Amino acid sequence: MGWAQVLVALSSAGLLVLALCTAKVFRAVQGLGRELERTRRRLNEEQSALQGELHRLREARGSHTPADGVRSS
């Protein structure tokens, strides 16, 4: 009978350790999700700024192309 109680106690302790590790992983995943969202927002701002700059460069380049449309390779 004593062995059964020890086995149940060890199993409970093992499950407690797994539960604590699961909670740590869950918190880490939430932190990673927040970091990814913050990075995504920052990159979107930079991307829109770069797209605006690219659009301005294309417009400036378009005004300097020859009228006949011939380009050198």
Could you name the key traits of this structure?
single chain, 73 residues, 1 helix, 84% helix
Description:
With 73 residues, the protein is mainly alpha-helical. The protein has one helix at residues 2-62.
Short précis:
The chain has 73 residues and is mainly alpha-helical. Helix content is 84%, strand content 0%.
Number of strands: 0
Q: Beta-strand level of the residues, as a percent range? A: under 5%
Q: Tell me the distance between the termini.
A: 90 Å
**Shape, per Cα inertia axes:** rod-shaped
Low-confidence segments, given as residue ranges, are none
Q: Note the run of SSEs as H and E.
A: H
What structural class do the secondary elements suggest? mainly alpha
Mean pLDDT: 89
Helicity range: over 70%
Chain-wise SSE layout:
Blueprint: H1 2-62
